[in-house]
Structures are given as C-alpha cells and as structure tokens.
TrEMBL record:
InterPro entries: Metallo-B-lactamas, NDM-1-like, RibonucZ/Hydroxyglut_hydro
SUPFAM superfamilies: Metallo-hydrolase/oxidoreductase
Organism classification: Bacteria, Bacillati, Bacillota, Clostridia, Peptostreptococcales
UniProt superkingdom: Bacteria
Protein name per its UniProtKB record: Putative Zinc metallohydrolase, glyoxalase II family
The entry's keywords: Hydrolase
Domain Metallo-beta-lactamase residue range list: 15-208
C-alpha cells in the first residue's frame, strides 16, 4: 500500500474504495473515503506511520459503509483525527440502521444487516460540510453537493484542482458490472452529473476506479452515466405500455438485462426502480392504480 501522487499535495491510495490523500506541510494528512473494514483502516494507519505521516482529518463523501468504515480503526491509531461529512450523511451515521431501513422499508432483519457492528458508528462527527469553501489547517478546499446516488453525497476539490467525487460517478467497469446502478434520487443524480461537468478541475478520483481521469476523460464518463440511467428510465417507461406491479417490473428488468444479484442486491435494485418510478410519476409520464390488493403502474 502506498500513496500515489496526482498533483501537488493531492494523491490517492488504491483499494476496493479509492482513498484520497492530501498532505499538509506539517506532515499531517486529510483522508477522503478511508474505505471498508477495520483491516483497511489498520493498513492505512501503518502506511502513514511508515511514511512519518499522521491522520489529522477524515471526510466521507457519503454514508455508505464501504466509504467510511475504516475510520473506526484510524481514529484509534491517531488520537485527535477529526471526522467530517455532509449534514444528510450525519443523520445516517447517527442512526446505524437507517440505511438498511429505507432499503428494506421496515426494521431490517439480521441477514440484511450482515456482520455490521454498532461500534463502527461509535465516533464523534467534528462538523458537517456544506457546499462552498471550507478550510482545514488554513488550506482552502471546495465542497460540492452531489446528491443522487445517496442522499448525502459531496465532492471535495483540493487546492491542486483534484476532485474527489466518491460514488457520484460510476467508472466504466462499474457500469458494466452493476448495469442497474444504486441510485436514491434519479433527478438529483442527473443534476449532479451536470454539476460535475461544470466544475473547474484538472483530475478526478472516482470512488471505485483503478484509474485517475483528466477533465476531458471525465466528460465522457459523465455522458456514459447519463446514457445508462436514461436508458433504464426509457426502458421502464416503454414497458409500462401495459400495467406492471413494481415487483413484476423489476423481474422483467432483471430478466431482460441479464442482471446478476443476491438477496441484498435485489433490495438495491428495488430501491433504484422506485427512484425511477418517482421520476416518471413526478414528470406526469406514468400513473398508478390499486386493484385487487396490488399496485399497478402504467403509461399515461
């Protein structure tokens, strides 16, 4: 494990979740999205110690476990390492079952919760980050609200014009592997893609990617993300020439697109479908009707 320099004092560490690193003059660092598991947190901490660096700040781009779980072990290695997130993310982190509750629609059972331990969420949040400029150790950073994938996404722009976007963008291989992406709010997601296109940056770090992209390359990735989401929205709209229940519609989408899934991924797909139905209903493109105890959706 090592820090790979991108530009100036901005870099990253490879992993299942790509971790952003900004190094200050005093050898302290900002960690963006430390990643999943205490084991990764331990490896990151050891790498920093071996390089005579220390973790001083940590930011998670959003509330999903694979972006912040490793902080629990980092804070044990580096006393005083402060944690920051958006206001919406804070609400989720202060209620550990909140995420699985809205995915499942009720109190989630133990098989859906998995092996997540409550102790992972046992830490203080120093402050919340809003869109706009903020300072850490007198260095100016810029935050952008990039909601859509989750309800609390933020992107962080470093002084070196390196943009860390978390899961506000899906890389090519993620779009291929997870063709029907997890999106909480499709309308906000598409607006966030537009915002990414407008931000002035030189390089971009995506949450799950083995590559660092320049501005021109990100423009293409943004376009591919838009195309992928709009393709599914249009597919759903066209299927609703005839009435479908939400479960029937999801089954059809999974079958027609040969999507692979397990029990937990089914609920992620179900949630994404719900957000796409919301978009179509709010745009007055589809309607619903309750019949014989079932809710049917259909095109207007």
């Amino acid at each position: 494990m090592e820090i790979t320099k991108i530009n100036g004092k901005s870099g990253f560490v490879k992993g299942g979740t790509t971790t952003g690193i900004y190094t200050f003059k005093d050898k302290s660092v900002l960690i963006i999205d430390p990643g999943l598991s205490s084991a990764r947190g331990n490896r990151l901490s050891q790498m920093l110690e071996d390089s005579s660096l220390r973790a001083r700040y940590c930011i998670t781009t959003h509330e999903h476990l694979d972006h912040f779980e490793a902080y629990s072990s980092i804070k044990n290695h580096f006393t005083g390492c402060s944690f920051f997130c958006s206001e919406n993310t804070k609400r989720f982190l202060q209620s550990p079952k909140f995420f699985t509750t809205y995915i499942y629609g009720a109190n989630p059972h133990k098989k859906l919760l998995g092996n997540t331990k409550a102790s992972i969420f046992d830490f203080d949040i120093e402050d919340t980050i809003k869109q706009g400029q903020f300072k850490l150790s007198d260095i100016k950073f810029q935050a952008y609200e990039l909601n859509g994938h989750s309800n609390g996404d933020i992107g962080i722009l470093s002084p070196d014009k390196v943009l860390y976007v978390g899961d506000a963008l899906f890389d090519y291989h993620i779009m291929k592997k997870y063709d029907f992406p997890f999106i909480f709010d499709v309308e906000k997601y598409l607006k966030s893609l537009e915002l990414i296109d407008e931000i002035d940056f030189d390089y971009c770090v995506i949450g799950h990617s083995k590559s660092i992209y320049n501005k021109d390359e990100i423009t293409d990735i943004v376009s591919k993300n838009k195309d992928n989401v709009n393709r599914y929205v249009n597919e759903i709209y066209n299927l609703l020439e005839q009435p479908y229940t939400r479960e029937e519609l999801l089954s059809k989408i999974i079958s027609d697109n040969d999507l692979k899934l397990d029990y937990k991924e089914y609920h992620y797909y179900y949630s994404t479908l719900g957000s796409m139905l919301t978009l179509l209903i709010d745009n007055d493109q589809i309607q619903y009707e309750v019949e014989n105890g079932l809710v049917y959706y259909y095109k207007l």
